Amino acid sequence: MTDGDVAAFTHLGPTVRDALSERGFSTPTAPQRLAIPPLSAGQHTLVIAPTGSGKTETAMLPVFDDLVSDGPPAGFGALYVTPLRALNRDMRERLEWWGDALDLDVAVRHGDTTQYQRGKQAEDPPEILITTPETLQAMLTGERLREGLTDVSHVVIDEVHELAASKRGAQLSVGLERLADLADGFQRIGLSATVGEPTSVGQFLTGGRPCEVRQIDVGSNVDVTVHEPEITAEDEKLAGTLLTEADTASHVRLIRELVDDHESTLIFVNTRQTAEALGSRFTELGAPIGVHHGSLSKEARIDVEDRFKAGELDGLLCTSSMELGIDVGRVDHVVQYKSPRQVTRLLQRIGRAGHRRDEVSSGTIVTTRPDDTFEAIAIARRACSGEVEPAAIHEGSLDVVANQIPGIVQSRGSTPVREAYDTVSRAYPFRDLPEATFREVLSELHRNRVVWFDEGDDRIETSGSTWQYVYANLSMIPDEETYEVHDIASGTQIGTLDERFVVNFARPGEVFIQRGEMWRIAEIDDDEAVVKVSPIEDPAGEVPSWIGQEIPVPYEIAREVGEIRTAAEPQFGIGADAASVGRELSGRYPADERTLANACEQLERHVDAEAAMPTADRIVCERHGRSVALNACFGHAANETLGRLLSSLLGQQAGSSVGLETDPYRIELEVPSSIGTSDVLAVLEDTDPGHVEAIIELGLKRSDALAFRLAQVSAKFGALKRWQGSGRMSNERLLAALEGTPMYEEAIREVFHEDLAVDRARTIIERIQSDDLEVVSQRGRTPIGTDGRSSGTELLAPENADASVIKTVRERIQNDRILLACTHCREWKAKTTVKRVQDQPECGNCGSTRIAALNPWADEVVQAVQAEEKDDEQERVTERAYRSASLVQGHGKRAVIAMAARGVGPHNAAQIINKLRESEDEFYRDILSKEREYARTQSFWD
């Protein structure tokens, strides 16, 4: 043991040092050596270190020492706040051991704590309380609990990097200031995974007060390799066994080999869909690999955690649920399936391996296509170099302000407005909140009768609804309906499904995957929100349409992919091939030569086609038919912003909507034939960069995305009181009713914060207009433009591997009922199944082919068509029917099939019909893609 090792523990008193010896802590870990000195000195401290490196003891040893030295307080001495809903069992057991050893009472308080235990904690507060951000909110309003909180001398915030970037964290930051009004001067300790710009996370933790940042250099202790599997004869054989394609089988085989080569492996995937899809493949193979994600039941999660920890499972397929501090024993390798999208994600995930003995964290990124490989090597290089994205502090959320004002007045009673404002604005995310905006929020709460605002006395009072609001809104996590999934044979719960999946997909007889197994739906109980299922062995199925957005790729990573292309392009120009370019890249990036050569084949094909190379400093615009693609290496948010700008202005110009899809490297537009490539380029060259934000906001005003956010935000303002019933209303009515309110402003702000990058888009346009960024027009599609998307879908690539899924979709649509109505004579209508519709439907009355294909229950549409005089709503409905009839007249039964799909109206049907394809299967795959898109985006308020 070195003098440096000894020095850390010498800051602790003899009682704690004796307990350390009993516990077997002879040598401090790296974070303990760095952080115990400032923590023991009482300084606010942010500790940044990998999961599993002893962060909990790092934070708590000085806290234990202080509580033992000063004697037990009358109230709570320390709060340990963790965002983990499951309240990590291992962490709790460790803290309880320390409590027993040091004669300190350690207790847990969360949503499942019994009323008896809560009462006991209020009467006789434990010295140390482990709790959640939401439960702390509830504690701040209890009279006896508030008395106990006045003695708090230490608050530890676990996983503070996760909280800083969320509304949960913004709410907690105000909660800490409310706590400071009771117990001023308590020490704040934050535990964080590796983040860029850690100073801002420290400021979030302390509310702008001085903060010591103690950080472990993770990048130098990471060994990561990027590898794309090579298809072998075994994969061809395995593909037949799994009813999948050979490339997918190669992914499964490689992951299985990596698991076999190590003792305990975590396999991270980016979505729950992929976890379930991969899990079903390993189940077919009988591999000892479990599935773990947030939509499985608590019992199912605990079961696989315990089995993995005990060595019964060699691998665990998991999502971001395993990035945080859940203890599953020692992990010696991490597999990341597909690009992790962000450096922070990679470091958090690979950081799970090897830290119990200060070992190097080893991991493998398994990639599936060129974009995926280039993105992964950029991320891996940046991880090893310590180039980490900053935590995006969630600043200025007005619905959080609305949420906190009732809590403040409920706990304090009659409160001066200025006093409440001072408390909120001390929190770091609200340091720039204008008092006038605070008062606007307060006035809205008064109008909604959540609180009483006496402008004459300038005070806030409780109303008859305040108490009810506070306890119905302890959490900032969106309140969405979930259905429990129960095995009908055993009665046990196996997981949950979100409401939108149940509404749009679930029917008795349908099949889906959960927990890596196939289930057939037997019954749906909407009143009890339960889906009853039975297990099956039939491999044909649908993966649940989980709530959640894909992880966005930052600008810096997409730009580095562009820089890789920049470096490769001239090498091909002087005769190099993909193998030699890949060999050169292998000297700078952590991947084998064959993987890099495979990825470079895409670039070689692009150069051979004499196409301009899209790079970090060049946009390549290419067109095929009505499809216009801009190859732009700017990342998800910037491309989405530019895409919305183009879609909005081109749509205005054409007088019709423009389809839009984006990924980190492409902006794809489906434009009317009247829009030329020059029109697209003119938007980039002529739009005033200063107008970008206003144009996009105008385009958002009637969007479902804004309506969905607005519904959630308005609930926090008490405008939509969920405890009084659903009170659902259409998106259009909701947007019209709330435009101009603080709720509308907050919903707009949230869309901009979470989905868009206006400043980046503005800069890109400025660069184009100053000739600093080249824009090249290309006729026809290019290899880079048409090759696989880096993140378009998160099912096993390719998404359409199971032919049986397409067969199921075809049979279901052919058997669906459809309403046919003539828009020429406006008198004839008929209901029938899709399979009975003629190739070219005709009116049974007048013989016209102008036949609208409608949902079988859409009689009100027929009535609107038949009406002599129409109001605005009827005009809108009639126009939709005429568009449908125009498609049927032009494309016959093919249009009827497309419009019979779920959530596919005339606009989407036209996109499906007009797409060139080689087979009927591709037609139905496109329909399924649109149905999935509808399932993901259908508003809560529809």
Automatic annotation (TrEMBL):
Keywords: ATP-binding, DNA damage, DNA repair, DNA-binding, Helicase, Hydrolase, Isomerase, Nucleotide-binding. SUPFAM superfamilies: P-loop containing nucleoside triphosphate hydrolases (SSF52540). Residues 254-399 form the Helicase C-terminal domain. GO terms for biological process: DNA repair. GO terms for molecular function: ATP binding; ATP hydrolysis activity; catalytic activity, acting on DNA; DNA binding; helicase activity. Coiled coil: none annotated. Residues 36-213 form the Helicase ATP-binding domain. Belongs to the Lhr helicase family. Lhr-Core subfamily. This is DEAD/DEAH box helicase.
